[in-house]
Amino acid sequence: MLQIQENVSLKNFNTFGIDANARYFTEINHEDDLVELFLDEQWKHLPRLVLGGGSNMLFVADFDGLVIRMNIRGIEHRINHDHVTVEAGAGEVWNELVTYCVNYGFAGMENLSLIPGSVGASPIQNIGAYGVELKDVFHSCRAFEIATGEFKTFLKEECGFGYRESVFKSELKGQYIITQVKFDLSLNANLNLGYGAIQQELEKNNISSPTIKDVSEVVSRIRVSKLPDPSTIGNAGSFFKNPVIGEELFKQVHSQFPEVVNYPAADGGIKLAAGWLIEQCDWKGKVVGNTGTWKNQALVLVNHGGATGSEVYTLSSQIIDSVYTKFGVMLEREVNIIK
Q1: 265 near 257, Cβ under 8 Å?
Q2: Is 334 among the residues known to form the active site?
């Protein structure tokens, strides 16, 4: 029987550790729970928030609606020659899925190690790290349509994947709840070592012929060295997207700051490292009231204890303003702001 609670604290359900309240809260363990929930008309018309690991959101106020925590579990795989299909429930922890695949020798996800959050949230955000994005390993997802109570399968080409974007964040926002994700992986590794410090770290450890396990371990070490553990200090990982700018603006920035960290992006754009831009504005490791930026990575905003969502949001606005003033580049928040 589906249980719906009232006035539930969300402090333990978001990695920022922000103490916001949900007017109503329920946990979904099976697809049938969603059907049962939305047979009742009152839940269809209330504001709602689907929660996975709570790792990519900032509550700036209490949520006056229904919070739906996805807890559908289970991982299965099928092998056909060199091709592997892996299916995972939306409530699975993302990194536990990556570990499962790496341990079985299924290649493709190793660069996505240690990203916080749940499997169900991964397509919404098109999560990515170290040169690999979710769309590179995504086959399809199964989702519940709230308006009709029907389930639909979305193939990769229907998901509108972009940089930290998908159709579920834009035109279909709030219309579907993802219950399961299917991935295309391989027994033949095609390692992506060209991004960040992966190659450097492998060489440092005298690894000349890396396996996917080596890459996963190296990526995990790099992430741990840069990013704080949410269990000890509240944060949501990278708070801002790496901005993609046009050639003209890049020429202006590069002429003033020749050392600007940049990478080629799709459609001829140039991606800048948001962390580098923020650091040049002297934000790295800065403490502002109960919040601040992480000492090892300026891209990460942290809750030093007792911070409100509004405090964190105000800090992010100050950072956006200072980067724009110095570089003429507008940063965009990657974290979802829940008002």
Answers
A1: no
A2: yes
Assign residue 282 a region (left: φ > 0; alpha: ψ between -120 and 50; beta: otherwise): left
CATH of domain 4-70: 3.30.43.10
Report the pLDDT averaged over residues 104-124: 96
pTM: 0.88
Alpha-carbon distance of 338 to 110, in angstroms, equals 31
Domain boundaries, the chain: 4-70, 75-186, 234-338
- Helices 94-104 and 212-226: crossing angle in degrees, nearest 10, is 150
Burial letters 301-328, b for 16+ CB under 10 A, else e:
bbbeeebbbebbbebbeebbebbeebbe
Q: How many angstroms separate the CA atoms of 193 and 185, rounded?
A: 17
Q: What's the CATH number of domain 75-186, 1.10.287.470, 3.30.70.1170, 1.10.10.10, 3.30.465.10? A: 3.30.465.10
Catalytic residue (one of 48, 238, 311, 316):
238
Residues 21 and 61: their CA atoms lie apart, in Å, by 8
Does the annotation mark 186 as catalytic?
no
Q: Which of the following is catalytic: 164, 166, 216, 316? A: 164
Polymer length in residues for the chain = 339
> Could you confirm whether 164 is annotated as catalytic?
yes
| CA pair distance 87, 83, nearest whole angstrom | 13
Residue 8 carries which side chain, given as an amino acid letter? V
Sequential DSSP letters for 116-140 = -SBTTTHHHHT-EETTEEGGGTEEE
CATH level 3 topology of 234-338: 3.90.78
pLDDT digits (tens, 9 = 90+) for 167-192: 999 999 999 999 999 999 999 999 99
Active-site residue, selected from the candidate residues 87, 133, 201, 334: 334
